[in-house]
Design a protein that fits this description.
The chain is of the alpha+beta class. Helices cover 58% and strands 17% of the residues. It is built from ten helices and eight strands. The longest helix has 70 residues. It is elongated and about 115 Å long. It starts with a helix and ends with a helix.
């Protein structure tokens, strides 16, 4: 019973504007129909003016719920103002976070450009960095002398697909003699069959690749705690373009800054939360 009364009161207060409006309608009806002049004999009382009781009760309800409606309106206006102010602050924070993410990504790509120069890579080579996020590889950095090769195809990959998946599991993977893709379908078939025989990969992935490299070196990067974090992908359109030992030797002097960039690169998480992905 107590809960019923409480819920009923809450509903009345919540719908105070509607109740106030109904009371005004009832008051109008009372005035038009002269209900306030209704009389009857009740409990031995002659000419009991029950119409006036209805009239005054309706007035009291209209007055009370009218005040509640005004107070509720002010509270709603205050809440709307607070929400608008918070929305502006959130938008400002999102803009600043986007700026930080973009600046971090630009700094990381600038660092990769220095690595490209240090390795002596030409417009035939490319470096990509994939960080593991939610059990998938996410592209967090890519650079090449050729701007076309810098363009992003797929931004994410499954952990068990292609050379990236193989290098992730084994720590590193190197190959430098993939077949050249000649004109005609057989040329693509030879390339796909060779890649797929080493580690499974869907055919449509190969068909949609913008860069079908012949030399690959996949190198896994561990975090500060020793756990795997990301993979570096060095690739070239040429056969025998570089040696694995040469890449590893050049990485020895820059591995710690790379680990720092990869560990601190939370742009994936931030941007996906902002976009609701």
């Amino acid at each position: 019973m107590r809960n019923f009364l409480k819920n009923s009161i809450d509903i009345l207060f919540d719908k105070s504007l509607i109740v106030s409006g109904l009371c005004l309608i009832i008051l109008t009806a009372v005035d038009i129909s002269n209900i306030n002049e209704w009389k009857a004999n009740f409990f031995g009382i002659n000419d009991f003016q029950y119409g006036r009781i209805i009239y005054y009760l309706t007035m009291i309800f209209a007055f009370i719920f009218g005040i509640i409606s005004v107070l509720s309106g002010k509270e709603i206006s205050k809440l709307e103002k607070d929400n608008n102010e918070k929305s502006i602050k959130i938008n400002d924070l999102e803009s600043k976070l986007n700026e930080v993410v973009n600046e971090t990504n630009e700094l990381f790509n600038s660092y990769l450009k220095l690595l490209v120069k240090n390795l002596g890579f030409t417009h035939k080579e490319r470096i990509s960095v994939y960080k593991v996020y939610q059990n998938r590889f996410k592209l967090i950095g890519r650079t090449s002398v050729d701007p076309i090769l810098m363009e992003i195809g797929r931004s994410e990959y499954p952990l068990n697909e292609g050379f990236i998946g193989k290098g992730w599991r084994e720590g590193e993977y190197f190959i430098n003699d993939l077949p050249e893709i000649t004109t005609g379908r057989n040329g693509l078939n030879n390339y796909y069959n060779r890649v797929n025989s080493i580690h499974p990969i869907p055919r449509d992935v190969i068909e949609n690749m913008k860069m079908r490299s012949r030399t690959f070196f996949i190198y896994r990067i561990n975090g500060y705690d020793g756990n795997p974090r990301a993979v570096l992908v060095f690739e070239s359109l040429n056969e025998n373009s570089f040696a694995k030992e040469f890449i590893i030797d050049k990485l020895n002097g820059v591995k710690q800054p790379l680990v720092m960039f990869i560990e601190k690169n939370n742009g994936i998480l931030i941007t996906e939360n902002l976009l609701g992905i």
